[in-house]
Amino acid sequence: MANEGKAKKILIIGGVAAGATAAARARRLDESAEISIVEKGRYVSFANCGLPYFISRDIPKRSSLILQTPEGFFSRYRVHVVLQTEALSIDRAARTVHVRGPEGESDLPYDSLILAQGGTPIFPPIRGLDSPNVFRLWTIPDMDGVHKFLETEKPSSAVVIGGGFIGLEAAEAFVKRGLSTSIVELTETLMPPADPEFGRLIRASYEAAGARVFTGRSVRSVDSAAGTISLDDGTEVPAGIVLVSAGVRPNTELAKAAGLEIGASGGVSVDESLRTSDPNIWAAGDMAEISFRVGGRRLRVPLAGPANRQGRIAATNALGGSMTYRGALGSSVFKSMEDTFAMTGLSEKAARTAGYDVGTSTVSKAHHVTYYPGYEDLYLKIVYDRSDGRLLGGQAYGREGADKRIDALAAALAGGLTVDDLADLDLAYAPPYNSANDPLNMAAYAAQNDLSGYSPSRSAGQAAKAIAGGEVLLLDVRTYGEFSKGSLRDTLHLPVDELRDRLEELPKDRDILLLSKAGFESHVALRQLRQLGFERVWNISGGMAALSLEPGLPWAE
User: Fold this and answer.
1) Strand, coil or helix: what is 495?
2) Neighbours of 151 (CB within 10 A)
3) Band of residue 6 on the pLDDT scale cut at 50, 70, 90
């Protein structure tokens, strides 16, 4: 793809993930191109996802987070990098960008322009956020400020405002540093993109580590002198250091001023080639509005993986290529203290909002066979379209194996697979790694059983609503030992192994929900009852493992 004749000028605004990747890709494609990066900050390429782990001291060397320097870029790629230089305006007709940096103002020409300016953390309108003990965690200087404050001021308490990815990673870092840590999240559960039950699992892991969690609450003010924050209900929380992680807005001011089309999500609108409304300008990374691979919604996906892939594609096409970006799945993974949460595609709530006829299947299963030492419980949920069985997304949580299943599910989503395809998926098995029937296979089997009517099910959320409304009889088929560890009020307890001998205790004129430890024994019970004349029976998907995550249930004393 080398340019014949005059060298092509590639100008990239912004470094880090998308911009730095675009520059390296452009050089590999065209040795003669004149490639420049204009970066507003002090670092052109750094591992921003690693910042919390330097704070926690899991990553001991600051230098390991700096991936490339201007000198390194020039030495390896002959890419010219200018730091602490802001792009002020784009002259689309003249194909120049007006910039201001340490050497003053100038106009930089381009043949192809790639915008990779990322986003900026949002500081909500809270009194006292300008205090010296309030930080964000977005750049190397941000990280340096937090680390220096911890080392010099030695606060004993921390508050994180925001319970998403960065906020929770920062909270874990503070816990590991020995600070009394509190998390404040405006929505009702942590990790808002996830379904509520996973937010509750994440909350439990932080509380088990000693953190306090306030959900459905906002911060009213910060009092740095007193070392506290005040919540909207008047609660005072110790806050020697405060870290704000309340969302990110895309840096689109330059694009807007240049008249480029902005999408409904607030990002720069691009086509499949990542070209903007100007044929000579591309956009990539957090600032770009792209297609979601499931359902085709237009949105921003501020994640490092998509940003890197977009930078590669934008550079290719800026040099005359024809690569297509087919969209993102939002695949993500997060370390929840000692556990792992991962998700891909649509959550149940997102799928319902998008108008799908949503089905879900939940399993709680060991991540490898239970007879091999060291197994850990894995909680897995898949989301699918009941009208055609097509997979829509999934989430997983556990000490081991969550990322593996979600990566496999992401591949299934990219391939447009159905529940039937997932049931047939041939996954690797050996006792130290898996079971002969992987949790993904098991979730698909349960979905097939529901769709076919062979073993109809209700999600834990649906079951909780029916139980709270007194609409159903709850039949608990767990063992006596399992039942003794916790049960709901007004439950009929008939262990599955005694069920055939005690059928006279069951009414045939009521809806019956079947509950077991994780959903399997209740499936066995349902098949017995269906063949013995009980038609109004449903299995609770995920069993007690799932139902126990639903709030407001009437637990027995």
Assistant:
1) coil
2) 9
3) confident
Q: Is residue 49 annotated as part of the catalytic site, yes or no?
A: yes
**What CA–CA distance (Å, rounded) separates 437 from 439?**
7
What count of Cα atoms within 13 Å lies in the side-chain half-sphere of residue 10? 35
Cross-sheet strand order for the sheet of 391-398 = 332-336, 339-345, 391-398, 377-385, 358-366
Sign of the alpha-carbon torsion through 462, 467, 469, 473: positive
Share of the chain above pLDDT 70, in %: 99
Residues in the chain: 557
Q: What pTM value is reported for the model?
A: 0.94
* pLDDT tens digit sequence for 477-515: 999 999 999 999 999 999 999 999 999 999 989 999 999
Q: Which two tokens stand for residue 397?
A: 């949580």
pLDDT in the model for residue 5 = 67
CA gap 434, 371 in Å, rounded: 11
Nearest to 10 by CA among 44, 36, 28: 36
Q: Angle, nearest 10°, between helix axes 439-452 and 402-414? A: 50
Q: Could you give the CA distance from residue 365 to residue 375 in angstroms, rounded to a whole number?
A: 10
Residue matched to tokens 């925001």: 162
Q: Give CA–CA dist 69/175, Å, rounded.
A: 32
Q: What is the DSSP letter of 275?
A: B
- What CA–CA distance (Å, rounded) separates 241 from 135? 8
- Of 406, 272, 443, nearest in space to 330 by CA: 406
Reported as type and span, the H/E element at residue 214 is strand 212-215
> Considering the chain, what is the average pLDDT of its residues?
96
Catalytic residue among 7, 47, 49, 466: 49
If one counts every other C-beta atom within 10 angstroms of the C-beta of residue 60, the result is: 8
Q: How many CB atoms lie within 10 A of CB 449?
A: 18
